[in-house]
Amino acid sequence: MTIQPIDSTSSAKRPRLAIDGLMRTASAWRMPLTVLVLCTLPWVLPSKALAVNVLIYGTFAVGYNLLFGYTGLLSFGHAAFFGGGAYLTGMSIVHFGFAWYTALSTGILGALLLSLVMGVLSIRTRGIYFSMVTLALAQLAYYTALQASSWTGGENGLRGFTVSKIDVLSLQIDFLNPLHKYYVVLLFTALALWLVSRVLKSSFGAVIEAIRENEVRARACGYNVERTKLLSFVLSGGICGLAGGLSALHLAIVPLDTLHYHTSGLVVMMTLLGGMGSFFGPFVGALAFLVMEDVLSLWTSHWQLFVGAIFILFVLFLPKGIWGTIMGLGDR
Amino acid sequence: MSTTPLLAVENVSKRFNGFVALEGISATFGGNRVTAVIGPNGAGKSTFFNVLSGAIRPSTGRILFEGRDLTAVPQHEFAHYGIARSYQITTIFPQLSVHENVRVSGQAFRSRYNIWCNRDLDRALIDKADAALLAVGLHGKRDRIAKFLSHGEQRALEIAIALVADPKLLLLDEPTAGMGPEETRDMVALIERLAAARTILLVEHKMKMILGLSDRVLVLHHGRLIADGTPAEIQSDSEVRRIYLGQSHGAA
Amino acid sequence: MDLQLIAMQLLSGAVLGAVLVMTALGFTIIFGMLGVVNFAHGALFMVGAYAGVAVAMQTGSFWWALLVAPIAVGAIGLLIERLLIRPLYSRPPDDPILLTFGLGYVLVEGVRIVFGNDGIPFSTPSALVGVVNLGIGYFPIYRLFVIGVVAFILLLLWLGLEKTRFGLIVRAGARDPQIMRVLGVDMRRLWFLVFGLGIGLTALGGVLAAPMRNVSPEMGTIVLAEAFVVTVIGGLGSIAGAVVAGILVGLVVSMTSLFAPEMATISMFALMALVLLIRPQGLFGRAGV
């Protein structure tokens, strides 16, 4: 076909701004840059434990964002994967005496399976029902853990699996030292970030974005929308399971609340506050949320009132979140 | 036609809870011709298009494409057989760039679940998307975000999205809906160019456009196919005249 | 197993079902008419219960609580619609979910500030204390009273929706808001009123539940989940769907607790999973879009 383009200005190149180039470079190097920033975190934040929490919840939120921000599915049931990963990691050590790495793998595998089951059930429903179904299915996980107390410790949570040493090859790392712990967790966080970054750059990443943008069009283009959503759901669930497993190793206890609706809500808030649909956003959100909690809870026990109010203001006026808004300043 | 037609619709009916939307439609299409489907509002045109694109399964009857029965095939596979469509309400990916809109559409035939291969590595696909944009006259805006295009440009983009798949059958649902005279003229020219290499079915309300553009016209009324012929034959068909003159709207 | 025991359990299942219907009713109306998934439903239910406690403490009368609390919380509902929900009608359908989720946080914490973290005992009104012999066994009078109230409310809603002009417009608007706008009906005013009505009914559910559940800031979470289960199983976002689904869930939970009490709460969610597996669109929902 040799057809003249109707628009005569077509070949005129738009002048590129210097900041544009800078952003491109930053975007291309986003993985190493992130890891570099994260390496300094324990010295910037008020406590090492807080820094470890930022890594764990950052991983949780980044995994969640794959589904919420990039596939456009608002799940209110991700506590099931975070908590499922945490419980299975802990239970593997308590009941089977697994080594930490086998336990963590079991946790991830369990979260993958759990997300496959929950995904199959929830993705079959029509649009707006999805949030309700995921929440209700996560409640099923919560009550199951509550009742199966001989396995899970019930209301008291799962206890008795302190991991004090981590062996990597012939290296023995003291896991009770908060700084060592931080860098071990960072290794897994970096792995998760790399995986998500990989997914977003890939052809599959293009497909989930297309489905988020317009499901009808994606289907007409030839994509199996349900199967793509399910794959994204399972990937997201697996990463959140990793975050949960790390949280179990970090705290040496799995509170029942890990599976609670509030944990699902927490990751929704972190992701939205930071900026859904952007790579760094959820991590920024987790950091902002945890620091906010740290500061506010010193001052009042009712800090959740402020968190809720801030969240409402973000939904109304800054739906792109902190990071998304900063990034958006460069555009037009 | 003695050979297998591109698309054969065999005695297709569709009922929704007792309401008959389509009743016993049979027709064949092919030969790179442009066929317009017309009829008053509620005649079943949209249902007909939805059946042809797999969005709705017929209650009875069959859809054969190149001799293969597509009646029970899921909607997303229709594109893989070579059927692409546009919608009456613009259906694009609003927050992706114009080029990415078309590229991701073409990607459905190459890589759907691969997380290891980068989306920007398939040079051939990128060029193909550029060619489709060139064909609809949008290449100059390839890096714009789709939602910032004008209405007419968005309609053209939707056609590029359908075009990148090299469909054998292109279904256009009111391609000029909401367009001014100038945009309509551009769109008609575009459809004429596209018709050179593929079979096109379109739903339209603008009579003048239909008569000038199509080789054949189907008239639906209350879900039935009441006339099927050249534009000249349709114009002189007494029943069609009765329906359209009886109702003032739709025949402008 | 004793037949009489089973009959008794079936009856208490039906009663539990009625309570569940009341729990989900306000949510269902707002979801069905406005398409808004109100994640603050549980929190507003809890606020309703606390408002009931407050009124009952002030006036010393349960009956005043039953009347005043729903009206007061319904008024708050009107305010919420006007200030928070209305700006979101033109936004993606997930935005009201996110906003009401945040609102739930604020409400729970607000109640904690005013009433404290611990639960408040709420005694059954003296006129409704005790049990009554139904032939197959003894039954708490209060539960029978709740069935009566639920039946009365459902009758009022049915009359209001089927027999009045307002109801006609509401039903037509739920089906096709575009057409209604063309006809010159002010949908925003309608949604405003329906939202207030839904929140008022939610609060009424809270007051009625107060003597049966532990009134605490946390009570809303399970209420929210129950409303979702009932809505998903019903699948229509309609009052009729909620009634049938609510009673079905009540029966299943009640029968499960007869055989395996520890599985009672789980059975409700398991039933939902089963329905999703067999009929993803819910019992009364239509397949497709």
Short characterization:
With 332 residues, chain A is an all-alpha fold.
Protein model, in words:
Chain A has 15 helices and 2 strands. With 332 residues, chain A is an all-alpha fold. Chain A has a two-stranded antiparallel ribbon with strand order 1-2. Chain A starts with 17 loop residues before the first helix and ends with a helix. Residues 1-16 of chain A have low confidence and may be disordered. Chain B contains 9 helices and 10 strands. Chain B has helices at residues 45-52, 75-81, 98-107, 123-136, 151-163, 181-195, 207-213, 231-236, 238-246, and strands at residues 7-16, 19-29, 34-38, 60-65, 68-69, 83-86, 169-173, 199-203, 216-221, 224-229. Chain B has a 6-stranded mixed beta sheet with strand order 6-7-8-3-9-10, sandwiched between helices. The relative contact order of chain B is 0.18. Chain B has a domain at 1-82 and 170-175 and 201-252: Rossmann fold, CATH 3.40.50. In chain B, 35% of the residues lie in helices and 24% in strands. In chain B, helix 3 (98-107) crosses helix 4 (123-136). By secondary structure, chain C is mainly alpha-helical. Chain C has a domain at 9-117 and 126-217. In chain C, a hairpin with a 4-residue loop joins strand 1 (131-133) and strand 2. Chains in contact: A-B, A-C. The A-C interface holds A 74, 76, 121-122, 124-129, 131-133, 135-137, 139-140, 143-144, 147, 260-261, 265, 268-269, 272, 302, 304-305, 307-309, 311-312, 315-316, 319 and C 35, 37, 39, 84, 87-88, 91, 93-95, 97-99, 101-106, 108-110, 112-113, 221-222, 224-225, 228-229, 231-232, 262-263, 265-266, 269-270, 272-273, 276-277, 280-281, 285, 289.
- The level of helicity of chain A is over 70%
Chain pair forming the biggest interface? A-B, 39 and 50 residues
**General shape of chain A:** globular
Largest sheet of chain C: 2 strands, antiparallel
Radius of gyration of chain A: 21 Å
Structural class of chain A: mainly alpha
Which percent band covers the strand fraction of chain C?
under 5%
CA(first)-CA(last) distance of chain C:
45 Å
* Overall strand count of chain C: 2
Q: Round the Cα radius of gyration of chain C to an integer and report it.
A: 19 Å
Note the run of SSEs of chain A as H and E: HHHHHHHEEHHHHHHHH
Cα shape of chain C: globular
Q: Mind summarizing the main beta sheet of chain A? A: 2 strands, antiparallel
| Total number of beta strands of chain A | 2
Overall average residue pLDDT of chain A: 89
Along the chain, the helix and strand elements of chain C come as HHHHEEHHHHHHH
Query: What ranges of chain A have pLDDT less than 50 throughout 5 or more consecutive residues?
Result: 1-16
Give the DSSP E fraction of chain A (strand runs of 2 or more residues).
Answer: under 5%
Strand order in the sheet with the most strands of chain C: 1-2
Total helical segments of chain C: 11
List the total number of helices of chain A.
15
